[in-house]
Amino acid sequence: MTSNLLRFFVLPLVVLILLTMGWTWLTLHWNYSEGERAGYVQKLSKKGWLCKTWEGELALVTMPGAIPEKFIFTVPDDAAAGRINALAGERVVLQYQQHKFIPSSCFGDTEYFVVDVTKVRDATAPTVPLPNSPQL
Length: 136
Hints:
Elements: H1 2-29, E1 33-47, E2 53-60, E3 69-75, H2 78-86, E4 91-98, E5 112-119
Antiparallel strand pairs: 1-2, 1-4, 2-3, 4-5
């Protein structure tokens, strides 16, 4: 009787748990895509009831006066979240990885995980005199 109980209830449960753990590991360590987005970080907060994750919004401004598009993202690393917070108010480039089909929101609310941030340099370039132009 106990071998039947083990075979029909416990063994399938263990297999299901192992498959779920394997799927979760695969979705978190194998990214679907990666890229960069530039804009201004509007919001970054640590939220969640049980699993606290950093969630944020990046305003993607294409041209002055245009309505900004929002890029909603998750930051899995506290150090990266600290670097993003340090650049608050600056135009930044976020490097992200997209992880699809994660089975739980405990790892983040979005599928876009920001892994690094860099500040955008000013667009002002030094003036170089053109050839055959008079020197001032």
